[in-house]
Amino acid sequence: MGGTTSPTSHTGFSLCPVTAIRRAFSFVKNPPLQSQGIMWVDPTSLAYKVFTYSRFLRCLQNILQALGLPATDFASHSFRRGGASFAFSAGLPVELIKILGDWHSDAVLLYLTVPLSVRLETVNVIANTILSTV
Predict the structure, then answer these.
(1) In the prediction, which pLDDT does 126 show?
(2) Where along the chain do its domains lie?
(3) Are 75 and 64 in contact (CB under 8 A)?
């Protein structure tokens, strides 16, 4: 039940990616074909390239390898977890993160990385409460 739904299942809603792309293309005089929504010009060949999922994953893995990180440990799904954790550390309430991430369950709680400072603060509150009752 957790996870995302198909992008087309919420077409028309303000947070729907399909709606956002269609709206963005409505401002372009000659929008690209539907299957070529995200493109760029390759500087070496001057040819148009389509930004597909596999191309994104290759670029991501190349960058990670260049940084000396284990590229096979990351995928596009890493951005979902990282985005949820970043939003949480920025102070967004979990309920809003659930809405923005299109979660229909509390599975988002499994994705959140609680910052060390928050963990330490929590431990201190518990310790002080125990000490005050002794």
Answers:
(1) 95
(2) 76-134
(3) no
